[in-house]
Structure formats: C-alpha cells, structure tokens
Amino acid sequence: MAENRKKVAIIGGGITGLSAAYYLQKQVREENLPIDIYLIEASSRLGGKIQTLRKDGFVIERGPDSFLERKQSMAKLAGELGIDDQLVNNATGQSFVLVHDQLHPIPGGSIMGIPTEWKPFVTTGLFSWSGKLRAAGDLVISRSGIEEDQSLGTFFRRRFGPEVVENLVEPLLAGIYSGDIDKLSLHSTFPQFYEVEKKHRSLMLGMKKTRPSTSTPQAANRKPKGIFQTFTGGLQTIVEALENALTDVTIIKGAKIQTLSKHHEDEVRLQLSTGEEKDFDAVLFTVLHHQLAEIFEDEGILQHLAEVPLSSVATVAMAFSEDQVIQEKEGTGFLVSRKSDYAISACTWVNKKWPTTSPDGKVLLRSFVGKSGDESIVELPDHEIEEIVLQDLKKVIEIKGSPEFTVVTRYQKAMPQYLVGHKTRLTQAKEELATHYPMIQLAGASFEGSGLPDCIDQAVRATNEILQYLKPRLS
C-alpha cells in the first residue's frame, strides 16, 4: 500500500484552497486513504483576500467583512473547527442610497432593490413619480421569454425602467460584484430573479410571495436579526483555525506555479518558482482564472479565460473619536448612485453594523473606491486616496478634523467579472480539462460564486471529484 501512495496538490491558499485541504484531510483520515496532501500558496501568507487587521482595539477587515448566514457551509465549517461560539450577526439598521447629495433610506421591504411593500416605495424620495409609475409596470409586463443568458441591466431595466435601476438596483448589485450590471451575467450572479420571473411573471409579486412572512404573532414579536455573520475577532479567525487544523497537510508558501506538464499518463508535473519540480496524481486549482490561462498557455487550453476581465477596488478604513463624527441619520451605511459625483461607491459605519469591531467612544468608517470603467483611483498613493475619500465623506457626514489613522487596501485586477455567457465559458474550461487533464479540478471565486460559503461549497465538490478519480487507482 505504501508504494501506491498518491499525491494531491491544492494550488492557492485562500478560503477555497484551505477548505479543500481541510475536507480532503478529513476524508483521508476517516477512510485511512494512502494520499498525501500539499497546499501551495504563491504569497507568504494564507487566507487570500481575507485579511483582518487588529489595531488599537479595532477589528478592521481589509477584504470581505462577512458572509450570508443562510448559506450554511461557513457556519458548518466553523462548528467543525470549534470556533462557532465566536460567530456574531450584524446589527440591523437603516441603510441609505446617496442620490443628488442626499441620503435616502432604502425603502422598507426591498429585496435587492425589488419592492415588496407599497407604502415605503411610494413615499420614498429616491425616485420621481414617473420613475415610480414605470417601476409599477412590473405588475403588468409579461415574461421576457428569453431563455439564454442576459445582462443584469437588460433584465432589470425591462422590469422596472432606468430610474429605479440607476438609483437603487445598480448600487446594490454592482457593489456585490464590483462590476458593470450591463455586462454581468444574470444566470451566473442572480439566477433566482430569472426563476421568479419565470414562475410568477412579476418580480414584485413573486418576491413578495417568496419572502418570509412577518404577519404571524411569532414573527411580529421576534427581534430583527442581521442576515450576515462574521467572527468577533474578524474573518481571519477561520483562516488561523484552518491553518492550525491542517496537521496532515504539507503547506508550501512563497511558491508560484511556473509551468505545468504531463508526467506519464496519469501524473502532472508542476514547476515551482522556487526551482523545484513536483509530480502529483491530482491537482485542484483555486487561483483566479487569468492565472490559469497563463499556466496552461503552453498546453493550448483554457485560453478563453484570459478574456474575462478583473476589476480593481480599494477599501479605506478610517478611525475617529466619537466626538469627531456627527451622524445625523442613524444607520449602518450607504451606497452611492453611479450618477452621483463621488469617488466612493459605498461606506459602512462599521462600529454601528458590527459593534464588536470598535472600542467604546470610537467610530470606524469603511469606504469603497473603484468603479467598473473608472478604476484609476485605486492606483493613486495612499495619502491621495485618503484625502479624496475624506472629502467625499465630509460632504455627507459632519466630520471634524482628520482620522486617528487610515488603512488603505488595494485589490488590483482581483475581482472576477461573471460576464454574460459565464456558464458557457466555465463548461468549456471543464470540458477541456476533462479531455486533456482529467486529474485536474477547478474551484474558487472565478467560477461558481465568489462569496465565502460559495467558495467552500465548491471546495467540497472538488475534493469529492478528486477522491472519485483517485480511489479506483489506489488498489
């Protein structure tokens, strides 16, 4: 048995790669399989976009700040790691959209910008009366009848008209993917809306029917609960727990994959930037798609992935004393309409949304800059970005003086864009691998969901595929 040991490489040490290593290690242990696991990360640290800075009593996320609780894979993994007691939900509060220099509350009952309650929608100052009447057309407009993929912008403008899309739907949806809704794929980003239209015709009526009921006595008495979760010590908590749990995994940091080739019929040879060559019986790539196109360039496959763009964003966290910031409108943050003359696209009042992140008497504001088609600000020096963001914030919030400190984090060409036809491109990539390299799997933010639970789900599926491939070869 020892002579027939197999080696598996997991390329990329973000949440997808870490989760894959954890669940593969778990199955190898439970079934006593002769498999050696290697986790190879190009940088000097694990976690990918997850980076938590703990400074002066603040917990500051430099990447993602939370995950949807209803997607249960993250909480399940936290439970297995013994850190689920550190999970906290966001505080509920009013969110706003900045339009024409005014903060307008997001209408109550809105689900991703889709109205499900009449009064808040009719009384909001976000839209003109003509815009409201056009949006009400959703109640009578027929199904599109389009089965093939289409852009989010095309889909939602047809249902609600341009004003509601520009002032509410676009800031909400584009912010999630840091992209252009006129290019993003409906089927790959929000397929549930396509299904609602298909089943109910009207998105308003369909979303109203599918949302949880609040009319029961139990629901009426229940305290509102935030739909997002994180850890009291930040998302870095799960990265640290995973790294500590991978006791049977060989972790190699600071090693980039230079080239890939077949070694014998059933092995892959990887050339590392360290100069080493290693042979593996199965490989899981969790890196971004453009890196895959580079790695497989000599093989002549996956080259269509190089055409898929990556957007750039930066986050700017600013810490203040409580007496420096006068928050006239009580809430947890705001989005910015694309037509507004602001560099920032969104701002979170972190100390309100996540009370455990900030010391008493302190305020933490986290802004986002970099919009699809206008990302040049991300390349500016830190002090210039800080000055621009502070000027924008002072137009909206009364702020005295300068922040106690600022943390600027850039993600240049790091946010995958699920363009129209994304599923077709992904199918093509998987078919090319199945033909030329059946021992290789793909998972991660570039493929089937960029949220943290989505990445974990992909990791689980990929490890199952690897084991299904390897087990017949272990005997």
TrEMBL record:
Cofactor(s), by name = FAD
- Recorded catalytic activity of this chain's protein: coproporphyrinogen III + 3 O2 = coproporphyrin III + 3 H2O2
User: Pfam families this protein is in?
Assistant: Amino_oxidase
MF GO annotations = oxygen-dependent protoporphyrinogen oxidase activity
Gene3D superfamilies given for it?
A: FAD/NAD(P)-binding domain, protoporphyrinogen ix oxidase, domain 3, Protoporphyrinogen oxidase, mitochondrial, domain 2
Keyword list (alphabetical) reads:
Cytoplasm, FAD, Flavoprotein, Heme biosynthesis, Oxidoreductase
EC assignment: 1.3.3.15
Domain (Amine oxidase): residue spans on this chain:
15-467
Q: Which InterPro entries match?
A: Amino_oxidase, FAD/NAD-bd_sf, Protoporphyrinogen_oxidase, Zeta_carotene_desat/Oxidored
Location(s) in or outside the cell: Cytoplasm
> Which pathway?
Porphyrin-containing compound metabolism; protoheme biosynthesis
Report the domain of life of the source organism. Bacteria
Family according to the record: Belongs to the protoporphyrinogen/coproporphyrinogen oxidase family. Coproporphyrinogen III oxidase subfamily.
Its job: Involved in coproporphyrin-dependent heme b biosynthesis. Catalyzes the oxidation of coproporphyrinogen III to coproporphyrin III.
Matching NCBIfam families, A to Z? PRK11883.1-5, proto_IX_ox
Name of the protein in question: Coproporphyrinogen III oxidase
Record organism: Chryseomicrobium palamuruense
